[in-house]
Design brief:
Elements lengths: L1 E5 L8 H16 L4 E7 L13 E6 L6 H5 L1 H8 L3 E4 L12 E4 L4 H4 L8 H17 L2 E4 L2 H10 L7 E3 L16 H6 L6 E5 L8 H13 L6 E5 L7 H8 L7 E5 L6 H6 L3 E4 L8 H8 L4 E4 L2 H7 L4 E3 L4 H13 L1 H15 L4 H18 L1
Parallel strand pairs: 1-2, 1-4, 2-3, 4-5, 5-6, 6-7, 8-9, 8-11, 9-10, 11-12, 12-13
Helix pairs in contact: 1-15, 8-9, 8-13, 11-14
Length: about 375
Amino acid sequence: MRIAIDMRMAGTGEGIARYVEELAKHLQLIDSEHKYFMLIDRAVPEPFPLTNANFCFVRLKSPYYSWAEQTRLPRELGIIKPDLAHFPNFNFPLLYRGKFVTTIHDLIHHLFPGKKKSRWLHRMAYRYTIASAVRRSEKVITVSEATKKSILDTFSVPASKISVIYEAAGEEFHTIRPEAIDVLNKYGISKPYILFVGVWRQYKNVPLLARSFDILKEQGGFEGKLVLAGKIDPFYPEIMKEVMGTVHPRDILALDHVADADLPSIYRNASVFVLPSLVEGFGLSALEAISSGVPVIASDIPVLREILHEAAVYFDLNDAGALASVLTEVLTNQGLRSKLIADGQLRSGEFSWSRTARETLNLYNEVMNKI
């Protein structure tokens, strides 16, 4: 079987990029039967070394989210002639007529279209493309039961068409390392600090976290800083305005881009990690945090309870005061901190990219046997 995996997002540092990089990297460790064509952008370096003769990188001229994706990419795939293609996001080429599976991580754009989809044409194109992906895929992979439910509630497809295959934290988040003071110095971070990792978009609820930090500081409950590690989206300047318009902006460190290699050290040295999201597809950053041995506070939404179980303290995502109270408790209660860290280590051990790759390979085989 010839399998093409769309890896054009590789190297961007985004969640989907990390998903497809880890998936392909671990597939080459377990499958010597099928031939894999890993499609990458012509301008990026190969994301990992090849150790399996059945795997090769193919450089394409069709960037993701581009007009070429819809016009040139089907022809580029036609040259490869895969028996099965895997698109790791909803943005597949509508003109492609081969067999494929799609991973849909979430339906966040349904709830929060954002400014990039402010025009009706953009919103219509998104909705048509994702609906077509769900309808035309041989199978849809999603990363949580919560997201599967959202897909079933939104689209008229049988539940049997959707398979839940969890993501995982990379091995680098489980590895015990020295304190890595050089990494902290590189970004101007001093301990202690509260950590958030994620993009600056509406659904991430970062302004509420900043307001909670204000309350915490006013109560004299914390002498450290709030570190916001993640891409600052220029389409949402109002988020930066709200965050830096709080009472203690000098104690907020906005890092913007952080190199993937530096993230484990930044997680590991945090006093607590907070994920205040209004919605998530999986919550990978929270899983990386518990894998790193950091106490986690999370908004009380179904997907985060599904992934984290008892390895987090939950709060009302609309209540800055409630988050401030939980922060105080987690920062000062050593017994609670120890329990969260222990529960986090146990829970994180239930996820692995090896398992993700194995279950995905089983799905490929199931689809091809059916065909």
